[in-house]
Design a protein that fits this description.
The protein has 98 residues and is mainly alpha-helical. Helices cover 50% and strands 0% of the residues. The chain has helices at residues 3-18, 39-42, 50-61, 66-82. Helix 3 (50-61) packs across helix 4.
């Protein structure tokens, strides 16, 4: 085999092997306008309930941050929804009368 025929065979096989890599893919599906929310709508603050605001104030008073704050607010909201008021401070033990 001559050099040119070898070169032609290598070129042909590389062309066939890489042909699929350059094949055109299907166009992405067009976006529908089903979602009409905008970035401003996503960032709009949610209305917070009175219980939520009160629990946040209590957490602020205790200077809670991070996981402790989330845990406290979760417990506070459960108590508020159950109808029991969360005590601001632990109740003092009753004094024994003699």
């Amino acid at each position: 085999m001559t050099f040119t025929s070898r070169l032609a065979i290598v070129a042909l096989t590389s062309l066939l092997a890489t042909g699929t890599a350059f094949a055109q893919t299907a166009a992405p599906a067009a976006k529908t306008d089903a979602k009409t929310t905008t970035a401003a709508d996503k960032k709009a603050p949610k209305e917070r309930s009175a219980e939520s605001l009160e629990c946040s104030k209590q957490a602020d008073a205790k200077a809670l941050k991070g996981k402790e704050r989330k845990k406290f607010r979760r417990e506070c909201m459960k108590e508020a929804k159950a109808g029991t008021a969360a005590p601001a401070a632990p109740a003092a033990p009753a004094a024994d009368k003699k």
